Amino acid sequence: KPLDVLKSRDYLVIYPSEKDVLAVSPDFQQLAEVDAVGIIITAPGTDVDFVSRFFAPAAGIPEDPVTGSAHCTLIPYWSHQLNKQKLTAYQASRRGGKLVCENRKERVIIAGRAVTYMHGEIQLATVGNI
To answer: Please, are residues 88 and 46 in contact by the beta-carbon 8 Å criterion?
Structure first.
């Protein structure tokens, strides 16, 4: 059972422990009906400051591996809860991802290893007087 549920763009569901976050087995059909872009679940971590998972089945993403936008919500929340500006995080998806985070008041800094999935080029042309 969550300790708290908050809402901004996404729902933020706070659990007591990392074990609780890992144990969640979501019903994606029910989650797709939620009135938010996604659902973030989180708890204090055992080896990191906090852990999380992110679900957005209505957007075609049952569970996102590592979600920058979710951490824009998580970093200020945990920074306030833990009274720390620099934090470590783990998104506990199947692939998973470790992040180094920093709360800079109006901005957050998120760093970690990334997986390149596409390379490409784009050409822009002007039309008329635009």
So the answer is: no
